[in-house]
Amino acid sequence: MKVLHVITGLEAGGAERQLHDLVAHHRVTAEVAALTRPGLISQAIRELGVPVHHLGMSGNRDLRVLNPLWRLVREGGYDVVHAHLFRAGLYGRLVARLAGVSAIVATEHSIGDHHLEGRPITRSVRTLARAGERLGHVTVAVSSAAARRLERWGVPADRIEVIPNGIDPRAFRFDPAARTTTRSRLTIPPHLTVVGGVGRLEPGKRFDVLLEAVAPLPDTVLLLVGDGPERAKLVARARELGIAHRMILTGQSSQVPALLSAMDVFAAPSEEETFGLAVVEALAAGLPVLHGACPALAELPPGSAPGARRLPADPAAYREAIGELAASGTPRLPAPHAVEHYAIDRHVTRIEELYLRLHQQRHRSTTALGERR
After folding, report:
1. CB 282 within 8 A of CB 294
2. 107 and 139 Cβ atoms separated by less than 8 Å
3. How far is Cα 140 from Cα 286, in angstroms, rounded to an integer?
4. Of 20, 26, 214, 282, which is most buried by a Cβ count within 10 Å?
C-alpha cells in the first residue's frame, strides 16, 4: 500500500512531529508532501529515507499549489492520501477526490472550542472546514474531545474515527548525559530549577502565566521550546518583570528530548487543547507535570499519570506548585501508564488498519458496481 501524507508545512510543531513519528514507524510505503515551509522536520523525515515533496505555496490563499499537488497525486499511484492541518486538509482532500484516490483521510490535530490551529474559529473557517470534510472518507480525531467538537460542526459521527496520538517512549526517556550537556550549552547552572514548556508561542498556550509565576521565584529559569507570534510580547513582559536573564527561548528545535532532560518541572497552562502531546512526552521524560487542558490525560482512568497535576491558568497556582516541587528536589519519576497507553506502535497500527479498511471498502464498492453493469 502506498500512502501520501499532505501537510501544510514541516516546522517543528506538534502535528509535524507526530507525522515524523508516524512515517518513522510505518509498515506501508509512505511519501510526504509539504505545501509550504520545509522546516526542521523536513530534513528529519528525509533522513528516515522517506521522500519529501515541497510544493512552494507562498501563503494560505496561494491556489497555485493545487497544480503541483494535482500532478503529484495523479502520477504517484497512491492508495491513500492522508492530510494533516487545515489548509492541507482542504487542498489534499480536493485533489485526492478529483484523482479518484481510494482512501482519503484527514487528521484534526488542533481543533478547540474557539480556536483552530491557534486562530479564532470564524463562520468562514467552519464553512470551509465542513466543505473539505465532505470530500474525504474519514476524519481522524486525536481525542474524544476533538470528535465531539467535529460533531458540533455537523460532521456525522460515522465519518469520525478517534485515534489518539502516539509517542516513542524510548525517544523521550530521561538522559542524564543529555541533561548535563544541554544545561551547559544553555549556560544554566546545575543548582537552578528549570521550568519548561514546549509548544507554539501563541496566546492560547498561555505561556504568559508561566512568566508571572516564575518571576518571584529565585533560582528558577523558564525554558520555552518553540516559536510563534507571541515571542516578542513574551520577551517584552520578561523585561518588565526583570527576569529576561531567567527566560530562555530556544525557538524551533529538533532536540526536544534533550531539552526535556534539562528541565525539572514541565508546565502547560493552555486552557484549550486537542490532545496534549507535549504533556505525554514530558511524562515519558519522567518530569512532574503541571497542566491545564489535556484530553490525553482527561480521557484515561484516574491514576494513569500520578506525576501530573491539573491547575487553573492562574500564575499564583503555578507559582505555588512550582515552589513546592522545587523544595522537594524534583526527583525524576518513572514513566506512568499513560505513556505506554499512547505508545506510537498502537497509533500506527490503528492508522494502518483504517487505511486498509477504507481501501477494501472502495474495492468492494467498485467490484459491485462493475457487476451491476
Report:
1. no
2. yes
3. 29
4. 282
At 138-179, the pLDDT tens digits run: 999 999 999 999 999 899 999 999 999 999 999 999 999 999
| Displacement of CA 279 from its chain's centroid (Å) | 11
Q: Which amino acid is it at 112?
A: G
CA atoms within 13 A on the CB side of 192: 24
Specify the pTM.
0.92
User: CA nearest 41: which of 72, 71, 5, 87?
Assistant: 5
Check: CB of residue 325 under 8 Å from CB of residue 307.
no
Q: How far apart are CA 252 and CA 62, in angstroms?
A: 25
- Give pLDDT, residue 361: 87
Element (H, E) at 316: helix 315-328
DSSP state of 166: -
Euclidean distance between CA atoms 9 and 35, whole angstroms: 6
180 backbone φψ class: left, alpha, beta (φ>0; ψ -120 to 50): alpha
Amino acid at 37: R
**Cβ–Cβ < 8 Å for 24, 43:** no
Closest CA to 116 of 145, 94, 85: 85
Asked whether 217 and 192 are in contact (CB, 8 A), the reply is no
| Alpha carbon 257 to chain centroid, angstroms | 15
Distance separating alpha carbons of residues 207 and 162, to the nearest angstrom: 29
